[in-house]
Fold:
Amino acid sequence: MTTIAKGLEGVVFTESKLTFINGTEGVLTHLGIPIQEWAEKSTFEELSLALLDGELPTAEELAKFDAALKANRAIPDQLAQLIRDMPKGVHPMQALRTAVSYLGLLDPQAEEITPEARRTISVRMIAQFSTIIAAVNRTQEGQDIVAPRTDLTHAGNFLYMLSGKEPTAEQSRLFDIALVLHADHGMNASTFTAIATSSTLSDMYSCMTSAIGALKGPLHGGANEAVMDMLDEIGRPEKAEAYIIQKLDHKEKIMGVGHRVYKNFDPRSRVLRDYAEHVANKEGKSNYYQILETIEKIIVDRMGAKGIYPNVDFYSGTVYSDLGIKKEYFTPIFALARISGWCASVIEYSQNNRLLRPDAEYTGQTDQHYTDLKDRK
Structure:
């Protein structure tokens, strides 16, 4: 009898030095360094470079990388026009997928798949994802595209392009931490999809377009948006307990809770919880946080013994909302961060590439013969 690993759970198909996860203990590390330290001490720019090169950069290397990101933030005029011409009401992830594919048409280096070319293209895409997403948001709201600045951090520049106003240092840093927490997470569905595409020796733009398609699904990138829908449905903190208990009693899914890997607290959610509380108290937006607190307590009390706890999506939407970001852009922002992990994983796998070609157990009929169309009933 063939053992089938539903959802590929437990299947190890490659080696990686980038990210380690111990779901039982609630541990996440990049290059052996805990995610809490990355969030506290580092930046999205530094983590992106560390993932691409597989080691902590020197100050000189980081400065050079930061300069390269800033130099590549602007998108081609043809792409900007394509974004302006997109239908109103288009899903932002559809817009991002189309824009990245079109970006590949404009890059004369797009078909090169050497390690050096893949890395160069990765730097450009890390820089331009934020510009694309901000441009989509602006044009969909009937506003002019805001050109990127080179005197702001990656996180700060995105918030500036989104609103047209320079963010505070605290807002920039908060968003930077959110990007750090989402930059990479092992062999998740979108990273695996990017690697599967790259294993055919396809180009980086095809790999990233594939990954965006996988992330678009609500079981992967869309959970943080669904959490906000749930909070809006609950409305007030005093209604949260009855709402969640009813959901649990009817065995209905609660978004932002549970994880395929983690059977303990998602360490990223612990970091975001603290910042969500800080922002909520400072901005007087305590309703959402109070609702989340109530939900978390009930979930831990009733489901913790089964290994079900809040995940990173549970608090991330609240943080994004407090930064003035609309919920339909939460998943594109996930992509804005995860582009670093996608590119790094593709580059790493390409060093010892093998075409991915799994099998499926056949459960159909055998010993059949063709029946003429006129004889079928």
